[in-house]
Amino acid sequence: MSWWDYGYQIAGMANRTTLVDNNTWNNSHIALVGKAMSSTEEKAYEIMRNLGVDYVLVIFGGMIGYSGDDINKFLWMVRIAEGEHPNDIKESRYFTPQGEFRVDSAGSPVLLNCLMYKMCYYRFGEVQHSYNTPGGYDRTRNVEIGNKNVKFTHLEEAYTTEHWLVRIYK
User: Fold this and answer.
1) How many percent of the chain have pLDDT more than 70?
2) Phi and psi for 144 in degrees, rounded to 5?
3) Counting CB atoms within 10 angstroms of each CB, which of 35, 58, 70, 158 has the fewest?
4) Mind listing the domains of the chain with CATH numbers?
5) Helices (H) and strands (E) in the chain, counts
6) CA-CA distance, 8 to 130, in Å (whole number)?
7) Residue 166's beta-bridge partner residues?
8) What is the DSSP string of 45-92?
9) Residue 29: is it exposed, middle or buried by C-beta count within 10 angstroms (0-12/13-18/19+)?
């Protein structure tokens, strides 16, 4: 499972079946993936089990300063999920009371504990880029992350590339 942007590449390069891709016409299927990414691990795991998901892939740019990552795309996942699942997903819950989308300690608790956040920032609190930045400093958003103690109940890290751009969980 991944966001639809990567469906063709995963299918073509890795010879794996994907749930959604750039040609998915079924908005409810894209919304279900968005709902999983925006939910807690427990709720997301139930969705993934029902869909027969073995692996989940995210693109994370916080290590190298890549701004086209899934955290920066995340609100679209939330919006699409809310369109199909308005009783479960509300975009406003991912913002601070002041209306800001933040991944630091001032971020919304719903955001700081959703599956997407956890998969991107798992073990990232242990990473210190240089002596003058704290552990868990996100180079894309230029902040110290708010949840450095990410733990998983159902998922485990399967693979992370050298610069953490691609992260895969099973």
Assistant:
1) 90
2) -85, 130
3) 158
4) 4-169 (3.40.50)
5) 6, 5
6) 36
7) 59
8) HHHHHHHT---EEEE--TTTT-TTSHHHHHHHHHHHHHHH-TTT--GG
9) middle
Confidence of residue 28 (pLDDT cuts 50, 70, 90): confident
The predicted structure's pLDDT at residue 10: 67
pLDDT the model gives residue 3: 78
The amino acid at 105? S
Strand-strand pairing, 166-169 and 143-144: unpaired
Give the tokens for residue 94.
Answer: 């991912």
pTM score: 0.93
Two structure tokens written together for 159: 């693979």
Tell me the C-alpha to C-alpha distance, in Å, between residue 61 and each of 92, 135, 138, 139.
Answer: 24, 16, 8, 8
Beta carbons of 115 and 77 less than 8 angstroms apart:
no
Which residues neighbour 113 within 8 Å (Cβ) at sequence distance 6 or greater? 40, 147
